[in-house]
Design goal:
With about 230 residues, the chain is α/β, with parallel strands linked by helices. It contains seven helices and eight strands; from the N terminus they run ββαααβαβββαβαβα. The two termini are about 15 Å apart.
Length: about 230
């Protein structure tokens, strides 16, 4: 049985939560997760890139020189692709990159991503995540014990160039909420590396693209309800 620790907003351990093995305890399928990530990124493309063909470039209506007798290669227009300021041959045009994956594949990919986070001890559960007002400082205080870490870096400029000092960094974290809580979303919006989402918009790419996954307890129940 997969288990995770439940914390409060003060960073204190409250209890452990038993997770559904069918959702959080499956063997991760790397190939399916890769397919889901590629599909997500393809669907994000706007596909608005466009180049001008020889028929769309202004000018070039007059034949540069007569067909025969000049010793040069025959040319019909100065807007052919081989000419400077000419059109582009076989260039990209606006198109849609969108395609869909099988529903069963999407479900396996989501289960694999969640199980991979649990297996790597990169998922934690908050009993509740509530703020009384829009306050970034309060959100930082709640997340800092889990996401802040120190790393030795070398000073690049100044008299102490080359010396190592300990600097604080933040891990990338994805917060999964059970409902649309605007207070929490706006309070976390200005924290670098912190992203908020809900169960109905959760995707494989966001899960794998973050170092830590913080799920509110009621969101865990909704995830299990959808994917179990």
């Amino acid at each position: 049985m997969a288990k995770v620790t439940v914390f409060d907003m003060g960073g204190n351990e409250l209890s452990t939560l038993d997770l559904n093995e069918d959702v959080f305890g499956v063997k991760p399928n790397a190939a399916v997760m890769h397919a889901a990530v590629v599909n997500y990124l393809a669907n994000q493309r706007q596909g608005t890139q466009s180049t001008l063909t020889r028929t769309e470039v202004r000018g070039g209506g007059k034949k540069p020189w007569r067909q025969k007798g000049t010793g040069r290669a025959r040319q019909g227009s100065t807007r052919s692709p081989q000419w400077r300021h000419g059109g582009v041959a076989l260039g990209p045009k606006p198109r849609s990159y969108r395609y869909s994956l099988n529903k069963k594949v999407r479900k396996i990919a989501m289960k694999s991503a969640l199980s991979a986070k649990v297996a790597a001890n990169e998922m934690m559960v908050f009993d509740t995540l509530k703020l009384d007002e829009f306050k970034t400082k309060a959100m930082v205080k709640a997340l800092a014990p889990f996401l802040e870490y120190e790393r030795a870096v070398k000073i690049k400029r100044g008299e102490k160039k080359g010396e190592e000092v300990n600097r604080k960094f933040w891990k990338k974290v994805l917060i999964v909420l059970g409902e649309n809580d605007k207070t929490v979303i706006k309070s976390a919006a200005n924290i670098p590396g912190v992203t908020t989402t809900q169960v109905n918009t959760l995707n494989v790419y966001d899960i794998l693209n973050h170092d830590k996954l913080i799920v509110v307890k009621d969101a865990v129940a909704k995830i299990e309800e959808v994917y179990a």
